[in-house]
Amino acid sequence: MAATATKQEPPAGDAAPYDVERVRADFPILSRKVRGHDLAYLDNAATTQKPRTVIDAVSRFYEQDNANVHRGVHYLSQRATDLYEEARHKVNRFMGATVGCETIFTRGATEAINLVANSYGRGLVGPGDEVLVSFMEHHSNIVPWQMLCEATGATLRVIPMSHDGELLLDEYDRLLNGNTKIVAVTHVSNALGTVNPVPEICRKAHDQGARVLVDGAQSAPHIPIDMQALGADFFVCSGHKMYGPTGVGVLYGRAECLDRMPPWQGGGDMILSVSFEKTVYARIPNKFEAGTPPIAEVIGLGAAVDYLNALGMENVAAHEHDLLECALAALRDVPGVTVIGNARHRAGVVSFVMDCAHPHDIGQLLDAEGVAVRAGHHCAQPVMRHYGLPATARASFGLYNTRAEVDALVRGLHRVREMFA
Amino acid sequence: MSDPRAMYEQVILDHNKKPRNYGPMPEADRVIDGYNPLCGDSFKLYLKFDGDTIADVSFDGQGCAVSKASASLMTTVVRGKTRAEAEELFQLFHHMLKSAPDAPLDEEKLGKLRVFSGVREYPVRVKCATLAWHTLHAAIEGTVPDDGPVTTE
User: Fold this and answer.
1) Tens digit of pLDDT for each residue in A96-112?
2) Are A181 and A210 in contact, with CB atoms under 8 Å apart?
3) Is A379 tagged catalytic?
4) What is the ipTM of this complex?
């Protein structure tokens, strides 16, 4: 096991500087060659690579502990249950939740949003009510609310944003009113990197009696999060974007909200007793975990949270911010490149276009250099439309990226110019 | 797998930079939208028929080098062709792109279209290369949807 992952506590303030090479050694995939080059993986907003400790935790579960949870009387079932609930405890602490039952495992961040839209939404939203989303949402935090509004007769309203990619909070104030039931907003934009002022958004929504769901898919792996400081009623994130496995996500919900919500999916673990006359539902969190959960994936996510804690999220955020600054400065010197979005507070995501080449062609030519970036609309088509673009190229940084990889990106972009300009 | 740069044959780069038959056609008999929802590429195809023959064809819109060059080259090869001949070219082109990277090419029938054979190695780009062709195919077959563009999905 690598040194960085065995630390139990985040480094103290006077600890050694962030050693990215030691971090990189924890990720087996980073040592492979892609098209004859060292891999420069800059598509972390889509999914992150996995440290050895996560891969081992999943393998170990299947090799040593595999059984279903919460139902067997035998040893392995008890062991699997313990590991599963231990992971819940880890995630719970990672998010700064104060009550253990506030962390619910889902199949992904998208399912977590759908859970809230279907349970909280359908129970408490009706004709005349309003749901606010922001202009910079990922499709996952737009479509479930559109579906809710279509089903209930509520109205979807959109918080606009500036050309720099910041939410217009004056407009938000104007849109908020006593009819607003839910505000759904991303913590960090996957297309622009904007970090939204979630505490302020939550405070204002609460003043109007509205609840807030925060999409933390792009924040939880990159900046420290604390549910008490954010003030969100619901917060969702995604395992595979947090250096954990695919197929698992997290819904944090305030117990007072979750308790009032009806179950969404029925079956399996979400019941206390079933008869053909009446079913008595389990208490939270089990009320929202119908069926066999993604057990190995949850345990893997627990290992990923251990890994992040060992590095310290403040250190991760500082490292990625350094890469962001480095990339923004370097991209300014590439002729024909325009960075999209210029928010004051942003995480390690850089969306850009080139005057001579389409993002798809940029992505393909960077791939020839072993540089992996995303090209497309990033499932945020309203953002693209705002800028009058069909697509952008996007470099998104993770805790293992280096300045040398930023250099590789820039070198690749110069080659794109040579070919297309 | 070969170098991804090799996919960009000089002909493709040239058609991307100087697309042929580019621009709207006010006298078109049919104007059809083509759209790739995966990447947002979007083209309009303008067709003028003389009986069964494609008398004139043009396109405009936005897309990557592969999709734009493919649309451009398509307009040069289907002008003057009958619907059946154009449809046969579509099938040939489509078949080439769906074939294995090392499968032999019918070079005589494909003619200039074979410059896109490198796309076979990159399945995600096949939709780029076929967007304009799918649009033409739908126009010829009369299967253009009423409620939106022709898509690659």
Assistant:
1) 998 889 999 999 999 99
2) yes
3) yes
4) 0.88
- End-to-end CA, chain B: 26
Q: Which residues of B56-72 are buried (b: 16+ CB within 10 A; e: fewer)?
A: bbbbbbebbbbbbbbbb
Q: B41 and chain A: CB distance < 8 Å anywhere?
A: yes
Q: Which residues of B102-126 are buried (b: 16+ CB within 10 A; e: fewer)?
A: eeeeeeeebeebbbbbbbbbbeebb
pTM: 0.92
Selected residue of A360, A378, A389, A414 to mutate for chain B interface (largest B Cβ count, 10 A): A360
Q: How far is B25 from chain A (nearest CA, A)?
A: 23
Closest CA to A221 of A371, A104, A135, A349: A349
- Measured between alpha carbons, how far is A243 from A333 in angstroms, rounded to an integer? 32
Q: Does B5 touch chain A (CB under 8 A)?
A: yes
- pLDDT tens digits for A162-188? 999 999 999 999 999 999 999 999 999
Measured between CA atoms, the residue of chain A closest to residue B2 is A35
A14: confidence class by pLDDT, cuts 50, 70, 90: low
Cross-chain Cβ contact A377/B4 below 8 Å: no
Q: What are the strands, taking DSSP E only, across A49-136?
A: 103-106, 130-134
Q: Which amino acid is at A89?
A: H
Average pLDDT, whole number, for chain A? Answer: 94
Q: Report the residue of chain B nearest A362, measured CA to CA.
A: B64
B5-26 per-position pLDDT tens digit: 888 989 999 999 999 999 999 9
- pLDDT at residue A4 is higher than 50: no
Q: If we measure between CA atoms, which residue out of A418, A188, A420, A207 comes closest to residue A324?
A: A188
